[in-house]
Specification:
Helices cover about 40% and strands about 10% of the residues. It is α+β, with helices and mostly antiparallel strands. Among the domains are: about 330-535, Trefoil (Acidic Fibroblast Growth Factor, subunit A) (Trefoil); about 675-825, no CATH class. Strands 1, 2, 3, 4, 5, 6, 7, 8, 9, 10, 11 and 12 form a 12-stranded antiparallel beta sheet that branches. A 4-stranded antiparallel beta sheet has the order 15-16-17-19, with no helix packed on it. A two-stranded antiparallel sheet has the order 13-14. The longest helix is centred in the first third of the chain and has 33 residues, at about 270-305. The protein starts with a helix and ends in a 27-residue tail after the last helix.
């Protein structure tokens, strides 16, 4: 009684003030909230709903913990069984040791994951002396190293559960998706060794986790929204700092970000300022933050590797001079006549190119040996500096200065570098040659040389930026100079062009008359310097110009090194060499071309990966060897491939059916797909409303008013409000004269334009239809059988119903129709009316399509991570497919969940999920000996040859 009186009091208060600015918000008064304030509080400490909520949260936590423990078992069981360096452990284990020894190296991958491997080796007590070849010595705790690497892969399984929940999957389907990841044999076996794949897979998983969390994070620009946005940027930075395939993750996120920005254009509250704010926020989170993470990873890379090493030669001379122990600081400090030097181009290429004497001759001239540029150091790079016209050295300390004349004589072939004039003006005519003057005497055109006419005399022209060096003799590595040919008046230039045939992929060296000293690729340095007479005068002044070593001696060297990032000069230096190393890495990666003439049993083709045609032996296959086989769970692998291949085909088919039937939308009112306005309007509302606000926690109630009516949203309800109720009633009577009671009709009729183009998202009429779907709507919980009949009533005046309101423009009565809970949005025909039964069937068809929207990020992620490999020329292995496989496995779980809830009863859904768990577990256990390591004769392991191309028993795989 008290509750009914209180409710009536609130209703009367609303009726008595119809002119109040109720239309500004169209907010329904929360009567239950007011009633709850006047009721006595319950005696229990927590209401039942709160206890149930806590229980559900605890279930999620328990499932998360169980999945982590299950993942730990599948990744760690017998992880130290094989005490031998396996597959690419020989590379990445050695790279990790470089960070312990602080010696600079070069590799094709970014440094982050290799630094983490170095950290794992440091924690395991490795001293950096083992070269990761053969068997592990007793002092190397390789098991602890592998456990630390596997830990990153262990996190993928529980994170997958959260990702599935973010995508709107049910709890049991999310659990199933995580189980698929846990029982995927390929993901397990690749995680058991010291490789980069565990880090790559985790960071890829984190990208998907943070981005799906961002998309359901609620109100834009809220704290939660910013948190997930920044976490997405951090994850992108981590994955691209691990391997360059992380660029595919950036492409995936970028594609959906562009789509979201376009969706902003169709929102009812669209403004250019709001669009600009969204763009700037995403630019900060998804572009700036990943770049900062990438730079920081290279900062620590350069900081840790402060000693010269095998990879130093690939870096510019300025970088090498900053490495501790570089050989240039241990050589004679100035070049003199008689010195044996190596000449290298200064900034001639991402890697230094050195003048190289070749034994072979030019194809068009059999008198001259080739002179080219080569990036590898060898004896052919050594030249003796001689004065003009003579080989006699009168003074030991006769140093070479700016303007000095020199000749360069190969110490191997005892010939000088000549410029031979040709009649043509081609690059070949400007090449230099290695020639013996005695051989030139056979040429009738040859004349005895003088200083001015000799073809092997070059003039030194300094081009230093440091004026102090211009007054000194040539200093190895520090003095930049040009080589000017005195007779031909040309400058030596290092060309980037590669001579593929007779040049053996070396670079071209020419002498160009049309270029000036100081132009790009005209500067040279002395890279190597030997002079027995001057070595005794050497003052060894080896300096660490970057002063990196002192940062590693302190207890807080990490914090100290980070402070260097506040130095603008250092940041410029870091940017310069980060870009340089990135270019070198990508170039080296592209040079990993497979040799088709050689048979390699571990290589594979991208077209084989989705069908698991060519699994890979990871080590020796002898009877006594502990054998590991990179093979996936066939059930999960093949099923996920089918889902990824057929889902786009289904979407294309539905689109074709819609396009074919949309032309006939005015001829049939009974066909679901022939009512174009229904299909497109609801689909558009979903795209531009639910997709961007589906789990928003922003406003509890909001409303939008147009000249046709209003959409009002309150919690999980969407209310349509129409003006001009008389017109709707008359239209109803005209269309359905047999209907008697229009106040309780099952029809709704807004007077839309007869132009079908109004349903287009970009049309002006569509922009008048303003809607927004609200918070935390699980769109998968509604079935047609459970939908109650809608409460649809028309009221003639605001006094007849407590929820009526006034139009903000005309102050005419608004006719309100109570809607179903979202996403049961009414289908509205632009030509007339649509019955609720038809709308329900249409809603089911539209909902069928819209629910599949959740799988789009998984399918797009799969193809973005897979398709680029089809166009790569580099050597490839099966493990390159694993990031794509991860998306495919989650897509399989989503697909099973969707069709189970749509076509199966709750009991059969449970049976279906148990069935998938059983067959995935069975396949995992069947192939687990090859995952955990099998040390017996492989022929004893029967029933594993499911495809004839598998080389489990016999070596049948061929390229």
């Amino acid at each position: 009684m008290f509750a009914s009186k209180m409710r009536q009091r609130v209703i009367n208060s609303k009726v008595q003030s119809p002119t109040k600015e109720y239309h500004d918000s169209c907010i329904e008064t929360d009567v239950d909230e007011k009633l709850s304030r006047s009721r006595p509080r319950p005696t229990s400490s927590k209401p039942l709903s709160s206890k149930i909520k806590d229980l559900l949260q605890n279930i999620d936590f328990l499932l998360f913990t169980f999945l982590f423990l299950l993942s730990a078992f599948t990744r760690l069981y017998q992880i130290g069984k094989l005490g031998k360096v396996t597959w690419d452990e020989s590379h990445f284990g050695k790279f990790g040791a470089f960070y312990i020894n602080h010696t600079y190296y070069h590799d094709v991958h970014p440094p982050l994951a290799k630094m983490l491997i170095g950290l794992a080796e440091h924690i395991a007590g490795h001293n950096g002396t083992f070269g990761f070849k053969g068997n592990y010595p007793p002092y190397v705790n390789y098991s602890l190293m592998r456990i630390q690497v596997a830990f990153y892969s262990m996190l993928i399984v529980p994170f997958s559960y959260i990702i599935c929940k973010n995508l709107g999957m049910s709890r049991k389907a999310s659990f199933l998706g995580a189980l698929f990841v846990a029982f995927e044999n390929a993901l397990c076996v690749i995680s058991r060794f010291i490789l980069l794949d565990s880090y790559l897979l985790l960071f890829t998983c984190m990208v998907l986790l943070s981005f799906t969390g961002f998309r359901v994070s609620g109100k834009p620009f809220s704290r939660k929204w910013w948190l997930w946005l920044i976490l997405t940027g951090v994850s992108l930075g981590l994955v691209v700092s691990t391997k360059y395939v992380g660029l595919f993750s950036i492409g995936m996120v970028g594609l959906f970000t562009i789509s979201e920005l376009f969706n902003e254009l169709s929102k009812p509250d669209f403004t250019y300022k709001n669009l600009f704010n969204h763009f700037i926020a995403r630019a900060i989170g998804l572009i700036f933050v990943p770049l900062v993470i990438y730079l920081i990873s290279f900062h620590f890379h350069f900081t840790l590797l402060y000693k010269t090493g095998t990879g130093a030669i690939r870096m510019p001379i300025d970088f090498q001079l900053g490495l501790s122990g570089n050989e240039l600081d241990l050589q004679a400090s100035e070049v003199a006549y008689g010195s044996n030097i190596t000449l290298a181009g200064y900034n001639s290429d991402p890697e230094m190119l050195m003048i190289n004497a070749n034994k072979g001759i030019y194809p068009k001239n059999n008198l001259h040996q080739r002179i080219t540029l080569f990036r590898n150091r060898n004896a052919n790079n050594h030249f003796i500096v001689l004065p003009p016209l003579t080989d006699n050295i009168t003074k030991v300390d006769n140093y070479v200065h700016d303007g000095g004349l020199i000749r360069l004589k190969s110490s191997i072939f005892n010939k000088t570098i000549h410029y031979i004039q040709h009649n043509t003006n081609t690059l070949e005519s400007k090449e230099l040659a290695l020639t013996n003057p005695q051989a030139l005497l056979k040429d009738s055109k040859y004349r005895p040389p003088s200083k001015e006419t000799a073809d092997d005399v070059f003039k030194i022209i300094y081009s230093n930026t440091d004026s102090k060096l211009n007054k000194l003799a040539i200093k190895p590595g520090r003095t930049h100079f040009c080589l000017y040919h005195v007779n031909r008046k040309c400058i030596l230039v290092a060309k980037s062009e590669v001579i593929k045939n007779w040049g053996r992929n070396q670079h071209r060296l020419i002498c160009d008359e049309n270029i000036k000293c100081g132009a790009p690729k005209t500067k040279w340095i002395v890279y190597g310097h030997k002079n027995k007479e001057l070595d005794k005068f050497v003052t060894k002044d080896a300096k660490d110009t970057l002063s990196l070593q002192k940062h590693l001696k302190g207890k807080y060297w990490v914090a100290t090194s980070v402070f260097r990032l506040l130095n603008i000069r250092y940041v410029k230096w870091l940017l310069k060499y980060t870009l340089l190393v990135t270019r070198m890495n990508i170039k080296s990666n592209n040079n990993l071309i497979p040799d088709r003439n050689k048979y390699n049993k571990i290589e594979s083709e991208p077209l084989d990966w989705p069908f698991l045609t060519s699994p890979m032996r990871m080590n020796g296959w002898g009877a006594k060897d502990t054998k590991y086989y990179l093979i996936g769970n066939p059930i999960v692998w093949w099923s996920s491939t089918l889902v990824c291949l057929f889902t786009p085909l289904i979407a294309i088919l539905l689109y074709i059916v819609y396009k074919r039937n949309s032309k006939n939308s005015t001829t049939s009112k009974t066909s679901l797909l022939k009512t174009n306005p229904h299909f497109v309007m609801l689909n558009s509302l979903w795209n531009f409303g639910v997709d961007t606000c589906a789990s928003s926690t922003a406003r509890k109630t909001s409303s939008y008013t147009s000249n046709i009516g209003s959409f009002r949203t309150n919690k999980n309800k969407v209310t349509l409000i129409y003006s001009n109720g008389d017109e709707m009633i008359s239209s109803l009577k005209k269309e359905h004269p047999d209907e008697q009671n229009y106040s309780q009709t099952n029809y709704i009729t807004p007077q839309f334009s007869n132009d079908p183009s109004f349903i287009h998202p970009g049309s002006s009429t569509f922009k008048n239809i303003q809607a927004q779907a609200l918070t935390n709507i699980d769109t998968t919980q509604f079935d047609e059988e459970n939908i109650p009949q809608a409460k649809k009533q028309f009221f003639d005046s605001p006094a007849t119903h407590p929820q009526s309101s006034y139009h903000s423009d005309t102050l005419s009565p608004m006719r309100e129709i109570e809607t179903l809970t979202s996403p049961e949005i009414k289908a509205i025909d632009n030509n007339g009316i649509q019955s609720f039964s038809k709308a329900s069937r249409l809603r089911k068809r539209i909902d069928k399509i819209s629910k599949l929207k959740g799988i789009n990020i998984l399918i797009v992620g799969y193809f973005i991570h897979y398709l680029p490999f089809l166009f790569m020329g580099r050597v490839m292995y099966l493990h390159h497919y694993l990031p794509s496989l991860y998306f495919a496995v989650l897509a399989l779980a989503y697909f099973i969940d969707y069709y189970s809830r749509r076509y199966l009863s709750k009991r059969m859904q449970i049976v279906n999920f148990v069935f998938w768990v059983a067959i995935a577990t069975f396949a995992f256990i069947l192939f687990s000996p090859l995952t955990f390591g099998y040390n017996k004769d492989i022929k004893l392991l029967k029933y594993r040859l499911w495809k004839s191309t598998w080389n489990i028993y016999e070596d049948v795989h061929k390229m």
